[in-house]
Amino acid sequence: MTQLADTVTPERSGLLSFLRDELAPRPGRLAAVLRIAACCSFVVAIGMLYQIPLVAYMAYAIFVIGTREMASTLLTGAVAAIAFTIAIGLSLTFYTLDASEPALRLPLMAASTFIAIFLTRTMALGPVAFLAGFVLVLSQTLIDEIRNPEALTHLVLWLWVVVMVPVTVAILVNFAVGEHPARLARRTALRLLGALAGALRSGDAAPLRHAEAEAVELFELRHKAGMLDHTLQGRAAIDTALIETLAELLMLQRLLPADTPVEVLLPLAQACEECGAALCQDGMPPPMPDETLSIDTLGLSPAARPVIVAMADAMARLADGIARRPTAQEPLPTPSAKTLLVPDAFSNPNHARFALKTTIAVMSAYIIYSGLDWPGISTSITTCFFVALGSLGETIHKATLRMTGAVIGGVVGGLSVVYVLPEMADIGQLCLLIAGAAALGGWVSTSSELLSYAGMQAAFAFFLTVLQGYGPGTDLTAPRDRVVGILLGNLLMTLVFSVFWPTSAVDRARASLAATLRTLAQLLSDEAGAKAGSRLAVIRALGEARRFVTLARFELRILPARVWLERTGGLSFEALERVAAASFVVVDQADDPRIAEALQAHDHEVATWLVAAAARVAPGGASSAFVGLPRLGMSAAALPDQTPASLRAAIAARELLQLELENAVAAPT
C-alpha cells in the first residue's frame, strides 16, 4: 500500500504519463486555444498600429485574463481593471513623495508589498489587492530607469491602456464566440455520464481516473453560470444535489467487485444513458426499466450487494432530480452577512508571516539588481510576487514551472529573432507568428494547475523576446537578462520560504485528510443537515489532499527530514477514497426498523472513531497507530435465507465499510 510519505517520492516513470494526461485533447480545449491565439494576435496588431508601449505585456494579459468561459473572463477582467486603476492612482501619488528620495521609496515599497500580500490572504477582494500591490511596487522601480518625471508619468498612465485593451478584446471575443459556463457545465456532465455508462458496460474504470475532480469543477462552473443567468439561481439547490449525486456515482463505481454480473450492471448503464439524454433535452426523462431501481440482489456477493443498492438509489435520485429540474424554482436563500476580512485576519500569525516572507524576497531582489546596476533582471520582482503561495511545495512547484516555461519560451523566441523575424515583411506575418506561439502556450496553459503555469510563462518569455519594439527585434540580451531575473527570483523565494517559518505541503495534505475524516464522521452520525453537501465536501477534501502531496515532491530535499518521518497511520489515498465510497454506501441503505437502533449505534461508534483518527492525521497529531476500530456484532452471511434483501444489504454495507477501514489503517508491509 502506498503511504503518504512514499507518495511524495518522485517517480520519473510517471512524468510521461502525467504529460500525456495533461496535454491530451478534451472537449472545448481547441476552441479555447483558438480564442487565445486570436486575441493575442489582435492585441499585438493594435499595439503595433498605435505604438502602445509594452506590447508583450498586452499579449500576455490575454493568458492572465483567461478565455475558457465567459464568466471567468468577465470577472478577471473587472478585477484587473479595478486593481490597475487603484495602482496607477497610488503610483502617481507616491511619485510626488519619493521620486527624488530613495530613502523614502524603499520603505514605501516594502510597506506596499507587505500590505498587498497580507490583504491577498485576508480580504474578500484579495485578487484586487494583489494586482494593485504588484503594479504599485513595479511602477516604483521604474524611477531607476526613467529619470524624467514627465516621461515616467506618461508611461505609468499608458499602463492603464496596456491592461484595458486586452481586457476589452478578451471580453468581446468571449461574449461573441466564447463558451457560456452553463453550456460547458452541461457538456461536462454529459461526458461524465457517458464515461460512467461506458465503464459500467465494459468494466474498465480507467476513463474515470480524474472524473471526481471534474465533478468538483462542474460545481464551480454551475456557480459561474448563475452569475450570468439569473434564471438559474432558483435551480441552484437542485443542480448542486445533481452534481453531488453524479460525483457519488463516480465514487461508488470504484467499489464494484470485478466479478459483478454484467446483467446487473447493464441496467445501471442504461439508466445512466437515459439520464444523459434527458439532461440534454432538459425535459422529463423516459421511464427507467424497473430492474434498474429494484434490482434482485439475492444472487450477488456480500461485497457487491450494498454497492449495487447504493448505485440504484443514487441513480433514482439523479433521474428524479433531472425530471424536476425544468420546473424547479426554489426560493433564493437569504444572503449571509459578509465581512471585509476573514475572521482570523489578525489572530492567525501565518498571514503576517507569509506577507513578511514575500516582502523580504521582493526587497532582496530589488536591492540586488539595483546594487549590480542590472535593471534587465527586474523580472526577479515579478517572479517573487507570482510564485508566492501558501506552502513551500506550492512555491517551488510554481517556481519550477516558471523557470521551465521561461527557458523554453526564451529559446524559441531567440531562434525566432535569429531565423524568422528577418524574413518577415509586414505586421500580418508577425501576427501569424504570435498566433502560433500563443496557440502552443495556450494548449499547455489549458491544462490543470499542475502544468498550466508553464504554458503561460513560455508564452510570456516568447513575447518579451520577439516584441522588443515596433519593428523586428535583434537583441538577444533582453531575453537572457529576463531569464536570469526569473532564476534569481526563484532562488530568493526558495531560500526565504525554506528558512523563515517553513510550511510544508505535507502538513496541508494532512489537514485535508483530517477534514475528509471529520466530514465522513458527520455523514455517518446522521446529524441534522449532515448529508446535504457532505459527499461533495469529502470528494473536494480528497482532491485537495492529493494535490498537496503532489506538490510536496518539490520540497523533498529542502525541508527537514522530520516532515517525511511523520506517519499517517498507514492511510493512503486509494484506501481513503474507498473508505469514503463505502461510507456513501452505508448512508444510502434503507432503514430497517428491526435493527435500526443497533445499526445507528454502530455508525455512531464509527463516526467517533473517525473523529479521533482525524485528530491523529492532522498536523501535530499523535504519532501512535490507529486502535480500537469498532466491530459490527452481526454478519450478513449468518442471516437466514428468508431475510429481506434490504436488511441483508444494510448489514453488508457496514461490513464493507469495516473491511475498507481495516485495509486503510493496516500496518505497511
Can you walk through the features of this model?
This protein is mainly α and 669 residues long. The chain has 3 domains: 29-178 and 349-499, no CATH class; 181-327, no CATH class; 505-664. The protein contains 26 helices and no strands. The chain has helices at residues 4-7, 13-23, 29-50, 55-65, 70-98, 102-122, 126-141, 149-177, 181-202, 211-228, 236-253, 262-281, 290-293, 305-324, 349-371, 379-386, 392-420, 427-445, 452-466, 477-499, 505-525, 534-552, 562-565, 573-587, 596-617, 645-664. α5 (70-98) runs antiparallel to α8. It is elongated, with a radius of gyration of 28 Å. Residues 1-13, 289-293 and 558-569 have low confidence and may be disordered.
Secondary-structure-derived class: mainly alpha
Q: Tell me the strand percentage band.
A: under 5%
Head-to-tail CA distance between termini: 8 Å
The number of distinct β-strands equals 0
What is the arithmetic mean of pLDDT? 80
Q: Radius of gyration, rounded?
A: 28 Å
Largest sheet: none
Short description:
With 669 residues, the protein is mostly helical.
List the helices and strands and how they pair.
Blueprint: H1 4-7, H2 13-23, H3 29-50, H4 55-65, H5 70-98, H6 102-122, H7 126-141, H8 149-177, H9 181-202, H10 211-228, H11 236-253, H12 262-281, H13 290-293, H14 305-324, H15 349-371, H16 379-386, H17 392-420, H18 427-445, H19 452-466, H20 477-499, H21 505-525, H22 534-552, H23 562-565, H24 573-587, H25 596-617, H26 645-664
